[in-house]
Design goal:
By secondary structure, this protein is α+β, with helices and mostly antiparallel strands. It has a domain at 184-410: Alpha-Beta Plaits, CATH 3.30.70. It contains 13 helices and 20 strands. Strand 4 and strand 5 (75-79) form a beta hairpin. This is FAD-linked oxidase.
C-alpha cells in the first residue's frame, strides 16, 4: 500500500507516484497531461491538498540538498524537499533560525511555501512566504522560471500559498532571522476564561516574539474557557546547536479505536492545565519543546484511530472573536466531540505576498477530532457556518471536506489562483472546490443565455 497519504489519514492513499526525474522529463518535453501531476513533500498536510487521486503525485523527497548559505546575510538556498529541521541544524551555529516555523519541523521547504505556513509570531513576522526571496519553478510548457519578489508575471505571488498548483517548485531562497540562541525564555500565564485571554493577548504580543494559547475545550461551568497563554523570546544565552531531530517514541500501528476520545481528554486537560499552571512565570526551554512538542512521537496521528482525524482551523475577525470563539468551542462540546489540540492565536496585520493566504487580522482557533463519520462531518459543517457567518475563513491547507461555497466565502480571490494554475497540476482539494465552482458558474451562465434567447439578462454571481 502506498505511504503517500495525508497526515489526517481520512483520504485514500495516492494511487500513482512518480519520482522527480520522470515528472521533470514530462514537464520539460511539454507532454504532461492536464491534471496529471502534483508535487508531494513529507506528507504533513492534514487534508487532500497534497493528493491527486485522478493523476499522480511527484515524490520530491530525493531533492533535499542545501545549495548555499551566506552567514553574513542569513540567505539560504535549498532544494524543494529540504526539511525545516535540516535548515535549523545547518544555520543554528551561525546564529540564525527560520523567521516562521509551523508546529512541526518535518515539513519541506516547498511545502512551507505552497501552504504559506504561519507560526506563533505572525504578529511580528507574518507568514513564511513573506521571507521567500526567490524560487525556481518548472511549468508544463517546458520553461524553468527563476521568480523573485519583484517578478511581474504573477507566478511568484501565485506560488506563495498556491498549494503546488502553479508548477513544480525545484528550489527556493529564504531569508532567515538572526537569533541570540535557539533556547526560548518561556512564560506561562493561566487564564480563567476567554474574556481574560482576550484582555491579556495584545500586551503579550507586543512584548514577545511568540505567543500562543491552549484552551480546555471540554471545560464547563466556572472553568469554561480556561487555558494557558504561552509566550516567549529567544534567550540571550543558550544553545547554538540544534538537537537531534529524530523521533524519541513511536506509535507502531493504528489503534483499533481512538485513544484521544472525550473520556480520556477531560481528565487529561485538567491535569495538563494544573501542571502547566504551576510552571507559571519565566523559564528557559529548548526550542523543540517550545515549537515542536509532538515531533518526538513518530506517527502520533495513529492515536486518533482507524478512521483518522479531521482538523478545523478558522480565523475570526477581531471584532467578532469574543462572541464567535466561545461559540465554536461550545458547538464541539454540544456535539459530544473532544479536541486534543485546541490552539488559539492572534494574527497580526502583516500581509502575505501570496495571492491567497489563510492568515489575516483576527484570531485563529484550531480544533482536531477523531473521525466518527457522519456526526463528525456534521460538526465540521456547523463550525464552517459559525465561522463564515462571523465574516471569517476556514483554512484550506488543513481541510479534507469543506464545501465549495465555504472555500469561496473564505477566499473570494480564488479565481486569481485558478488563472495562474498550471493545467498539468491539480489536487483533490482544488478539484473538489474551485473546479466545481468554475463548472457550476459555466453551467449557470449557459443556462441563463439559453433562457434569455442568447442574451445575458442578469449578471451571474458566483462566490
Amino acid at each position: 500500500m502506498s505511504s503517500h497519504r495525508s497526515f489526517g489519514l481520512t483520504n485514500p492513499a495516492a494511487p500513482k507516484v512518480l519520482e522527480p526525474e520522470g515528472a521533470i522529463a514530462l514537464l520539460k518535453t511539454g507532454t504532461a497531461e492536464a491534471g496529471s501531476l502534483l508535487g508531494y513533500g513529507n506528507g504533513r498536510s492534514y487534508g487532500d491538498s497534497c493528493l491527486n487521486g485522478q493523476g499522480a503525485v511527484v515524490d520530491m523527497r530525493s531533492m533535499n540538498r542545501i545549495l548555499a548559505f551566506d552567514p553574513a546575510t542569513g540567505l539560504i538556498e535549498a532544494e524543494a524537499s529540504v526539511l525545516l529541521s535540516d535548515i535549523i541544524a545547518h544555520v543554528a551555529p551561525h546564529g540564525f533560525f527560520p523567521a516562521v516555523v509551523p508546529g512541526t519541523q518535518f515539513v519541506t521547504l516547498a511545502g512551507a511555501i505552497a501552504n504559506d505556513v504561519h507560526g506563533k509570531n505572525h504578529h511580528r513576522r507574518g507568514t513564511f512566504g513573506g521571507h521567500v526571496e526567490a524560487l525556481t519553478l518548472l511549468t508544463s510548457d517546458g520553461r524553468t522560471h527563476r521568480l523573485t519578489r519583484g517578478s511581474k508575471c504573477g507566478l511568484f505571488a501565485a506560488t506563495i500559498g498556491g498549494m503546488g498548483l502553479t508548477g513544480l517548485i525545484l528550489s527556493a531562497t529564504v531569508r532567515l532571522m538572526r537569533v541570540p540562541s535557539l533556547d526560548i525564555e518561556e512564560e506561562i500565564t493561566p487564564f480563567r476564561g476567554l474574556d481574560e485571554y482576550f484582555d491579556l493577548v495584545e500586551a503579550a504580543d507586543a512584548a514577545n516574539e511568540y505567543a500562543v494559547a491552549w484552551t480546555d475545550q471540554l471545560a464547563t461551568g466556572q472553568r469554561e474557557g480556561r487555558g494557558l497563554l504561552i509566550s516567549g523570546n529567544h534567550a540571550e544565552y543558550g544553545a547554538r546547536k540544534a538537537g537531534a531531530a529524530g523521533m524519541v517514541l513511536a506509535v507502531p500501528f493504528r489503534v483499533p479505536v481512538s485513544v484521544l476520545n472525550r473520556p480520556f481528554l477531560k481528565p487529561f486537560n485538567g491535569a495538563y492545565y494544573w501542571k502547566k499552571s504551576k510552571a507559571r512565570g519565566k523559564h528557559k526551554i529548548g526550542y523543540q519543546g517550545f515549537f515542536f512538542p509532538l515531533d518526538g512521537i513518530a506517527h502520533w496521528n495513529r492515536l486518533y484511530g482507524p478512521r483518522g482525524l479531521y482538523q478545523h482551523q478558522s480565523v475570526i475577525p477581531e471584532g467578532e472573536a469574543r462572541k464567535t470563539v466561545p461559540a465554536l468551542l461550545a458547538a464541539a462540546r454540544e456535539a459530544g466531540h473532544g479536541s486534543f489540540l485546541t490552539v488559539l492565536k492572534r494574527f497580526g496585520g502583516i500581509p502575505s505576498p501570496g495571492l491567497i493566504s489563510f492568515p489575516r487580522p483576527g484570531y485563529t482557533l484550531t480544533l482536531d477530532f477523531p473521525n466518527r463519520g457522519a456526526e463528525t462531518l456534521a460538526l465540521m459543517e456547523r463550525l464552517d457556518r459559525i465561522t463564515i457567518e462571523a465574516g471569517g475563513a476556514v483554512n484550506p491547507y488543513k481541510d479534507a471536506r469543506m464545501a465549495p461555497e465555504v472555500f469561496a466565502a473564505s477566499f473570494p480571490a480564488w479565481r486569481n489562483l485558478e488563472a495562474h494554475r498550471d493545467p498539468a497540476f491539480l489536487s483533490d482539494f482544488w478539484r473538489r472546490t474551485a473546479v466545481r465552482l468554475s463548472t457550476e458558474a459555466r453551467r449557470a451562465l449557459a443556462a441563463e443565455r439559453t433562457n434569455s434567447g442568447g442574451r445575458l439578462t442578469a449578471r451571474i454571481h458566483s462566490n
